[in-house]
Amino acid sequence: MEVINTIGRRKAAVARIYLSDGKGQITINKKDYKEYFPKETLQYVVEQPLKLAEVHGKYDIKVNLDGGGFKGQAEALRLAISRALVKIDPEVKPLLKTQGLLTRDPREVERKKPGQPKARKKFQFSKR
After folding, report:
1. pTM of structure
2. How many domains are contained in the chain?
């Protein structure tokens, strides 16, 4: 099997992955994913598409993660893995789609406007 290359994005995070046959190693920026994401909830988010498609421990994944925070990075990685699994086996697409793993979450931070303390918050109005 040739190496499959996909990309996933969430907020400001970008995950580029290279998926190939192997023993189930996930390496993020030259670290093991359990070392990179110490929280178990984030590890679960990363493993979710692999467990749903029942291919956990079958592929090696090399990841370049950039930008954003931990949660955004984990969800960007989840999207990239889901897209790669669909490229390998299109039959898992309906299963992943019903769980919402193939949808790119479009929510981004709104920019701060001039003359305001934040994006939507206004300074206190004084009548007199």
Report:
1. 0.90
2. 1
Task: Please check whether residue 31 is in contact with residue 62, taking contact to mean a CB–CB distance below 8 angstroms.
Answer: no
Sign of CA dihedral 43, 48, 49, 53: positive
CATH number at residue 64: 3.30.230.10
By residue range, what is the domain housing residue 45? Answer: 4-98
What whole-number distance in Å separates Cα of residue 37 and Cα of residue 94? Answer: 28
**Beta strand pairing call for 4-10 and 13-21:** antiparallel
Query: SS3 letters for 47-111?
Result: HHHHHHCCCCCCEEEEEEEECCCHHHHHHHHHHHHHHHHHHHCHHHHHHHHHCCCCCCCCCCCCC
Cβ–Cβ < 8 Å for 1, 7: no
Of the candidates 9, 16, 6, the residue with the CA atom closest to the CA atom of residue 103: 9
Per-residue pLDDT tens for 32-73? 999 999 999 999 999 999 999 999 889 999 999 999 999 999
Tokens for 91? Answer: 């039959």
How far from 17 is each of 21, 117, 118, CA to CA, in Å? 13, 38, 35
